[in-house]
């Protein structure tokens, strides 16, 4: 007989998956290692009350980077509050590479969680700071708060100059023009030891203007 068309095969799979209970999904993901966007999307739609349990299973599988990476990739493009919760949980137990992928996945959410994202803007790791800012920059409500956090460690003695220069680089690269008033303030910093920050801020203003 002729082969089943791809679209029909997908429909049959979808109908079969929609008749399963949540344990079947956990078995498929954690025993078989099969992760698909459509499968996860369907699971979250059918079993919204089991998001916490899914997070528990994921935390137990934290060392399986391939599986965790597959879940993060599959969650991209699914826009719902359970996805936020799952991504935040994965971020909590993952290495920096997975954390970067988690933040990139969050960029696709229409309502990312500011209580989770804003504290990341003041963390030590500059790469994660930049990725968090990239998500925040898409949201006007969060953006202004985040810019204030990035530049609040300004003091005339220059103790935070290295951090400030990193943060100037972040807003310049991400083209966050809301940072211009803060950069203008940095350009006016007195004393010779702040020369590098003044020059860096001026360069960023020119790039953003």
Structure description:
The chain is mainly α. It has 13 helices and no strands. Helix 3 packs across helix 5, helix 4 packs parallel to helix 6 and helix 6 runs antiparallel to helix 7.
The number of E-state strands comes to: 0
Number of helices: 13
Element pattern in H and E: HHHHHHHHHHHHH
Beginning-to-end CA distance, first to last residue: 65 Å
Structural class designation: mainly alpha
Which consecutive residue ranges, at least 5 long each, have pLDDT under 50? none
Q: Based on CA inertia axes, which overall geometry fits? A: elongated
What oligomerization state is this entry in? Answer: single chain
Strand percentage: under 5%
Biggest beta sheet attributes: none
The radius of gyration computed from the alpha-carbon positions, rounded to a whole number of angstroms, is: 22 Å
Overall pLDDT: 90
Helix content: 55-70%
List keywords for this structure.
mainly alpha; 67% helix
Topology summary:
Layout: H1 6-18, H2 22-31, H3 37-46, H4 51-60, H5 65-75, H6 81-93, H7 96-106, H8 114-117, H9 126-136, H10 140-150, H11 161-173, H12 180-187, H13 195-208
What's the gist of this structure?
The protein has 209 residues and is mostly helical.
């Amino acid at each position: 007989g002729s082969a089943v068309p791809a679209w029909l095969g997908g429909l049959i799979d979808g109908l079969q998956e929609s008749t399963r209970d949540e344990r079947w999904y956990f078995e498929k993901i954690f025993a078989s290692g099969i992760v698909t966007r459509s499968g996860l999307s369907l699971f979250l739609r059918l079993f919204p009350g089991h998001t916490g349990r899914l997070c528990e299973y994921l935390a137990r599988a934290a060392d399986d980077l391939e599986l965790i990476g597959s879940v993060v990739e599959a969650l991209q493009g699914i826009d719902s509050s359970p996805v936020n919760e799952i991504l935040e949980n994965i971020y909590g137990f993952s290495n920096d590479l997975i954390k970067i992928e988690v933040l990139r996945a969050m960029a696709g959410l229409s309502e990312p969680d500011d209580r989770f994202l804003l504290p990341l803007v003041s963390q030590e790791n500059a790469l994660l700071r930049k990725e968090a800012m990239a998500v925040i920059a898409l949201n006007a409500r969060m953006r202004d708060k985040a810019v204030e956090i990035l530049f609040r460690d300004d003091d005339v003695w220059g103790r935070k100059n290295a951090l400030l220069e990193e943060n100037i680089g972040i807003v310049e690269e991400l083209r966050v023009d809301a940072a211009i008033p803060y950069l203008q303030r940095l350009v006016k910093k007195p004393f010779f030891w702040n020369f590098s920050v003044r020059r860096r801020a001026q360069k960023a203003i020119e790039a953003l203007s």
